[in-house]
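R.M. (postdoc): so does anyone remember the format we settled on? I'll just put the structure tokens first.
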């Protein structure tokens, strides 16, 4: 997979790709991530990329021309499955969206700032609008980092144990079951006996029950 990220603040987003699972996925060449600074695509003085909004009101709006130039250049080079705009009024990200996007060959992610982008960018260039939840961030960069993490870890070969993504919370609309590791007893708190029994049928049944109980207690909405 190839991910092209268009942003005015690449420095806000680079470090997550230089650590941990995303770094390993890049090193294994299972994904490549390319940053494009919007300011490189404007011909205006002071590298201006935003302007006052028509009709008046506080807050700047990102102009269409630099964004169009950047996206058009990328689209000449390859086909994109999704051209995504990160925005609080987009569709809320969930695991099934992440699963579907992870099957893509190439995607573009545009990070919004200020009051957002000129509506014509969304009408003309964007194919998918994504929010990461009902709260406001200063810009789309951190949201784009979260989107990339959710999709990159799903690419086959990225996680060491291929089945481990399948047992994550949400993969079957259930939260993950409780987990334990050594020691078997700590300050009087014991690991459930079934987990040390070696009976894999019983262990699996216990995990299913634990997942269901957790979901019922914490996220009953997932079971509806
Ligand atoms: Cl994608 N962008 C911004 N600026 N705020 C958000 C968001 C995105 N998702 C939730 N809040």
């Amino acid at each position: 997979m190839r991910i092209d990220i268009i942003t005015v603040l690449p420095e806000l987003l680079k470090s997550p790709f230089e650590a941990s699972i995303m770094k390993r996925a890049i090193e294994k060449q299972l994904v490549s991530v390319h940053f494009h600074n919007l300011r490189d695509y404007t011909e205006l003085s002071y590298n201006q990329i935003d302007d006052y909004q028509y009709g008046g009101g506080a807050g700047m709006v990102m102009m269409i021309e630099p964004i169009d130039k950047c996206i058009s250049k990328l689209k000449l080079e390859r086909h994109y499955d999704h051209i995504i705009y990160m925005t609080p009024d987009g569709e809320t990200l969930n695991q099934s969206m992440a699963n579907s996007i992870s099957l893509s060959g190439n995607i573009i992610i545009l990070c919004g700032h200020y009051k957002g982008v000129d509506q014509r960018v969304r009408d003309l260039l964007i194919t998918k609008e994504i929010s990461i939840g009902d709260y406001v961030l200063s810009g789309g960069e951190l949201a784009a980092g979260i989107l990339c993490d959710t999709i990159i870890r799903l690419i086959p070969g990225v996680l060491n144990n291929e089945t481990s993504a399948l047992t994550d919370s949400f993969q079957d609309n259930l939260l993950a079951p409780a987990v334990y590791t050594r020691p078997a007893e700590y300050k009087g708190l014991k690991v459930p006996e079934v987990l040390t029994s070696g009976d894999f049928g019983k262990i699996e049944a216990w995990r299913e029950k634990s997942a269901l109980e957790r979901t019922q207690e914490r996220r009953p909405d997932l079971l509806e």
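R.M.: ...and that's the designed sequence above, right after the tokens. Also worth knowing: The first helix runs from residue 20 to 27. The first strand starts at residue 2 and ends at 7.
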